[in-house]
Amino acid sequence: MSIELDSVSFAYGRRARSILSRMSYTVPDGLTVLLGPNGAGKTTTLKLAAGVNQPDQGTVRLGGLPSHSKAYRLKVAWMPQTITAMTGLTAREQVAYTGWLKGMNRRAAWDASAEALKQVRMTEHSDMKAKRLSGGQLRRVGVACALVHGAEVLLLDEPTAGMDPTQRRIFRDLVLGLASREVQVLLSTHDVADLAEEADHVTTLTEGTITFSGSTADFLAHAPASVPEARRAESAYSALTGYRATR
Ligand SMILES: Nc1ncnc2c1ncn2[C@@H]1O[C@H](COP(=O)(O)OP(=O)(O)OP(=O)(O)O)[C@@H](O)[C@H]1O
């Protein structure tokens, strides 16, 4: 079962220009990296896929469930670009609270919170006030919030932005582990080197248009044969979009 955007159009406001026009896209299985430059429409696409925003035209569905339904939102978890630490709450309380908001009872949310924090390797910080966590730690709490209610699809918006190389590595291993446990993951980034080579699929978005969606092998095949292995993802991205990759 996959999220399907069917001929979706979206503008921020009635008179605003359309950010997406008749976009059709099926989120692939496994781990997909959504690549695109600043302003390409990655966040907009993820918010539509999460049911946070509704399309002006077209439909967003998961196995027949429309994205405005509660059942849809229970199957899908979205991690926004900015995670807000809740004043006064510990990391564990913040994650449990998110589970409770998703409809879990208090006990289940409390237990699931510990499990989700374990998955993101934050157990030792679970009793720290969320406000006192570092940016990278707070992002991991954000992932735990996305994991807490056992969603089938995780939509992660620029989850590695602002992380140092060590945190990036921890995060990369975490995401790879999640996707291998049969959770569908769609992760946006403008850092091509991030995960593109380890992902199962790559989708590129340029000015609101999907310019490529396919297997990672097919994506990398767009790099000229002469390009060294370490630069293949960046080169394939430039060949497909005309944009230089950023780091
Ligand atoms: N709330 C908003 N109101 C009006 N316009 C918006 C709003 N959010 C985004 N936009 C516009 O929509 C377009 C796509 O933005 P979006 O955030 O989806 O891109 P993105 O690919 O996620 O970019 P970034 O990598 O910078 O996060 C941009 O032109 C942006 O200015």
From TrEMBL:
<keyword id="KW-0547">Nucleotide-binding</keyword>
<protein>
    <submittedName>
        <fullName>ATP-binding cassette domain-containing protein</fullName>
    </submittedName>
</protein>
<keyword id="KW-0813">Transport</keyword>
<dbReference type="InterPro" id="IPR003593">
    <property type="entry name" value="AAA+_ATPase"/>
</dbReference>
<dbReference type="InterPro" id="IPR003439">
    <property type="entry name" value="ABC_transporter-like_ATP-bd"/>
</dbReference>
<feature type="domain" description="ABC transporter">
    <location>
        <begin position="3"/>
        <end position="232"/>
    </location>
</feature>
<keyword id="KW-0067">ATP-binding</keyword>
<dbReference type="InterPro" id="IPR017871">
    <property type="entry name" value="ABC_transporter-like_CS"/>
</dbReference>
<dbReference type="Pfam" id="PF00005">
    <property type="entry name" value="ABC_tran"/>
</dbReference>
<comment type="similarity">
    <text>Belongs to the ABC transporter superfamily.</text>
</comment>
<dbReference type="GO" id="GO:0005524">
    <property type="term" value="F:ATP binding"/>
</dbReference>
<dbReference type="InterPro" id="IPR027417">
    <property type="entry name" value="P-loop_NTPase"/>
</dbReference>
